Amino acid sequence: MAAKPQYRGRFAPSPTGPLHMGSLLTALASYLHARSASGLWLLRIEDIDPPREVPGASDSILRSLEAHGLHWDESVLFQSTRLDAYAEALNTLKASGRLFPCSCTRATLGPGGSCLRRCKPGPDDPTALRIQLDESMGFEDQILGTQAPPGESGDLVLRRKDGLYAYALAVVVDDARQGVTHVVRGADLLPQTFAQLELLTLLHSPRPDYAHLPIVCDHRGTKLSKQAGAPAIDDKRALNNLRDALRLLRQPCADSPAATVDELLVQATADWDPRALARAAKEVLVYH
Q1: Of 132, 152, 188, 269, whose CA is between 20 and 30 Å from 35?
Q2: How far is Cα 279 from Cα 271, in angstroms, rounded to an integer?
Q3: Is 10 annotated as contributing to ligand binding?
Q4: Is the residue at 2 inside a domain?
Q5: Residue 1 lies inside a defined structural domain of this protein
Q6: 14 marked among binding-site residues
Q7: 228-255: per-residue pLDDT in tens?
């Protein structure tokens, strides 16, 4: 029997702004999930969308993670250095016969944001490159439980009209490149998981285990995000920030008397209880 691969988790922020509490919670949960399994925790900067990137955000994210004691293993992988790999993956996917050009705008896309090959691009029309999804598959989420596949197949963009590669393609290529065995991320990305599993199959790549975290909202019920103006975390309050994140994650050590971030993380790793998150999966986590 083949040996089970070592746990390899990852945190993969986009440099569209500094870390906020929602992104810190994801980083912390993925870190604790990896460390509690004696695994590796990798860092990837998803910098393939220059129009949305904020100058200096990558360095700010790295500094914040280090200030909170979240030290990664191996070198940071920057997606901007991986364009050749994405082009190679597209060539592999062309063999499936499912890729097609699409000139649709958001206003003209069909249900679920799919084109379904309805548009007929002219020779001078800017086009995105899409893939038809045919084999939706369910999976067992480590927090949310059994996830049934969506009832209807659709399609999704792999390369945008402006020539930039889409997240859906880059994430599966890089998870395979980094040997990621476990993905811990927000439940807002849950709908994309079904398509990513299909892409992994078409690329003959192993599929990770997934765990989707409850969404963190502010007091108005708005998801904490950079687009919604979530405030940056204060690195000078790192210990308090970690305690707040642990409370949101329903972890028992949030009120530990630990005096440093390193002490708190050691205890949080030893006490890590993802079952507490499963119990909170249907709740809205509110951060004031």
Answers
A1: 188
A2: 16
A3: yes
A4: no
A5: no
A6: yes
A7: 567 889 999 999 999 999 999 999 899 9
